[in-house]
Amino acid sequence: MLAVGKAGLGKTVALRWIADQSGAAYCEVAQHTRAIRPMFKMLHDAYGVQKDSKHTYDLAKDCMNFLGGRYGPTRPLLVDEYQNFTPTVLRELLHLQERCGFPLLLAGNTHRLASTRRDTHAMDQIESRIGMRFEIGQPTREDCVRIGAEHNVEGTDSYEAIAIYGENTSLRALCYLLQNCAAGTSGFGSIRLPRIETTLRGMSCASDVLKLLHERRNGRQPQPQATRRSKRANGETVLSR
What we know:
The chain is α/β, with parallel strands linked by helices. It is about 45% helix and about 10% strand. The protein has ten helices and seven strands. The chain has a five-stranded parallel β-sheet with strand order 2-3-4-1-5, sandwiched between helices. Helix 4 links the parallel strand 3 and strand 4. The longest helix has 14 residues. The relative contact order is 0.12.
């Protein structure tokens, strides 16, 4: 499975949470793990397997053993920042998955490090072999409201502002803003709109920064509120919002 999305949507936090809850193996692709041999070492570390050899062939053979279920059921593998892989290394990882059959989730940003047309074409061909692909979209109003509730936000105007801010920026930016608001209350008391505005001004020197709280970008329109139907005692139906 391949999950992609823009930066700041919470992919890494979600993957770490899934790994903690399910016992899946988690690893993150960094600059030093982009080659084949470091990639095999990364898999050893993710599964807690001791590296008995420094040779690429032996490391690959070990991976075949513990990923192929030779020592028991194989835990799912969650690979974060997959876009840092070169086409050659990603192809090798997918070969491992095809031979061993372990559950594999690749996650990362929509932007790749592949800079040449040749690399881009190679990555497209490789990704086409992945059985399932989905793209994580912008945070919804419901996402922002849940995060606001966890940070003790209070007031209809406050929730409206953080929903607009989350849709204009990202979940990462929204969490960072509310964490700074909470720090100003020393962890006690609720967070209301004046504190949110004051904190956001302190975080940015831009004169129009409050527009992120009150004006939707990219032509987004406010989401219509749900219409409720109720009946009066005389049986008359009334529509309300």
